[in-house]
Amino acid sequence: MLFRQLFEPISSTYTYLLGCEETGQAILIDPVLPTWPRDLAAIAELGLKLVYTLDTHIHADHITAALTLKRESGSRIAHPAIDALPCIDVPVQEGTPLAVGGLRIDPLFTPGHTDGHHAYRLGDRVLTGDALLIDGCGRTDFQNGDAPALYHSVRETLFSLPDGTLVYPAHDYEGRQVSSIGQEKARNPRLGGDRSLADFVALMSALDLAYPTFIDYAVPGNRECGVCPTDVPEDLQQYCRQMRDSRQG
């Protein structure tokens, strides 16, 4: 398997490029709208063809590049079936693997950050989206977020994976790239150790986080698989415009 972790700095989002060396097929997981040219260039450099894009959930901090990549490359849009988006080509759900050439991607239903959130397991690694971050987790105060649901998603689904499973999150704000299930079980300050459900719910309720900067534009745009709304103000246009530079992790 070819594996690349690409970083978009405005929203601190990791996009994952996975490629099958035998068939040349590739998939992008959580692609971000302004960085689609970079992602296609990386795919071409590796001699691959993009066949799917796949998001972990309906994002609130950036707009997916799924629709643009479909137009530019002919890729198909995969997305959790539970969100019932009319623009998707391939609905995914837990229990039904997605094949990309010889690669097998197993969806894991992990609600809590949003009610439709999925993580994706690929053998010895898991892409955890916003459900489980390195030393943290996604917030639960919008998009039908639910702290008890997130607690069970992480503790019962993700923490049931082997300790050596590598954890690749959808975001990191400190420059970290990878963790492991064992590490997060032992030291995650929100969900690790002997943290109880009641303690976690109290912790999440007390965060008092600011209203997300781009949510009012990102959510409707992502419900259309990646359309930047026409009324995005000038100071937020960086979320929609093509970027010239984007450092990679």
- Could you say how many structural domains there are in total? 1
CATH H-level superfamily: Ribonuclease Z/Hydroxyacylglutathione hydrolase-like
What value does the Rg take, in angstroms? 17 Å
Q: How much of the polypeptide forms β-strand, as a percent range? A: 15-25%
Number of helical elements: 6
Overall geometric form: globular
Strand sequence of the main sheet, in spatial order? 1-2-3-4-5-6
Mean pLDDT across all amino acids: 95
Outline the low-pLDDT stretches.
243-249
Tell me the major beta sheet: 6 strands, mixed
State the share of residues found in helices, binned by percent: 10-25%
Order of helices and strands: EEEHEHEEEEEEHEEHHH
Helix-and-strand structural type: alpha/beta
The separation of the N and C termini measures 18 Å
Number of strands: 12
Keywords: Metal-binding
GO biological process, one term: glutathione metabolic process
Protein name: Beta-lactamase domain protein
Pfam families: Lactamase_B
Description:
- The protein is 21% helix and 24% strand.
- The longest helix is centred in the middle third of the chain and has 11 residues, at 147-157.
- Mean pLDDT is 95; it is low at 243-249.
- It is of the alpha/beta class.
- Helix 1 links the parallel strand 3 and strand 4.
- The chain contains 6 helices and 12 strands.
